[in-house]
Amino acid sequence: xxxxxxxxxxxxxxxxxxxxxxxxxxxxxxxxxxxxxxxxxxxxxxxxxxxxxxxxxxxxxxxxxxxxxxxxxxxxxxxxxxxxxxxxxxxxxxxxxxxxxxxxxxxxxxxxxxxxxxxxxxxxxxxxxxxxxxxxxxxxxxxxxxxxxxxxxxxxxxxxxxxxxxxxxxxxxxxxxxxxxxxxxxxxxxxxxxxxxxxxxxxxxxxxxxxxxxxxxxxxxxxxxxxxxxxxxxxxxxxxxxxxxxxxxxxxxxxxxxxxxxxxxxxxxxxxxxxxxxxxxxxxxxxxxxxxxxxxxxxxxxxxxxxxxxxx
Length: 312
Ligand code: DGY
Prior knowledge:
By secondary structure, the protein is of the alpha/beta class. The chain folds into two domains: about 5-95 and about 285-300, Rossmann fold (3-Layer(aba) Sandwich); about 95-275, Rossmann fold, CATH 3.40.50.720. It is built from eleven helices and twelve strands. The strands form two sheets. Strands 8-7-6-9-10-11-12 form a seven-stranded parallel beta sheet, with helices on both faces. A five-stranded parallel beta sheet has the order 2-1-3-4-5, covered by helices on one side. Strand 1, helix 1 and strand 2 form a beta-alpha-beta unit. The longest helix is centred in the last third of the chain and has 19 residues, at about 285-300. Bound molecules: (2R)-2,3-dihydroxypropanoic acid (DGY). (2R)-2,3-dihydroxypropanoic acid binds near residues 73, 96, 100 and 281.
């Protein structure tokens, strides 16, 4: 039997080219098929952040020789259970750092200058004259940026803000980093003093609804909130309330709960909320590199070798 890899969605061609070079068959899950059932016919899996790889999935697919997550975040995978079943798992660190940081930066710029309303105004023919008081936004230069989660992406985003706008950077993280331009502070201090709060932490038990009603109440500078991490890091009901209470200036969200966010959700109606459909890593170069990493990790797993980007 020829070795074959199940891929839960069509991904960048780079992965298919590598598999072809190695004479490995691939199969992309069709819309009506069940990933859990189809996986049983294959020796390895490339899954997406939207696939739930939980205990029941793993029990049904304990034969898998490797699972490669086409994302850096891996909250969709029960890693402890993979470990128990000795199924190696990888993710795609580093290669999407700049792409995601740049998307966070775009959302920040768009939020600070009311781009959503301004674009609608022009497109809908409401632009009748130059308005001295129209769309007054906030300048970012010299503001205080609070970064929650100071790993690769948090640092890259903070560096962009620091270098472009001379922002003062504060952050919360488990460990202190050795940067002269960024200072580790407590959660409450970050909430109180930040003009911008950007989330870059992984989703886990410690970060679930980390930004909640209490956090919003602590915010004293009516910050702009940016989330390119995971939707569940924000208590979304508390966010809606915070917007109604003007506790925050605007929100730029690349991630929501659930995904996709239903069309009728109140967040879409807020003029100061920008929502993008989880496109943090969506650049040609990042997605190509992610595909390459996944393919190489799967090949290592199929050969019984340690995965280069192993998660445990
Ligand atoms: C990831 O890969 O985990 C990110 O969510 C990309 O946006």
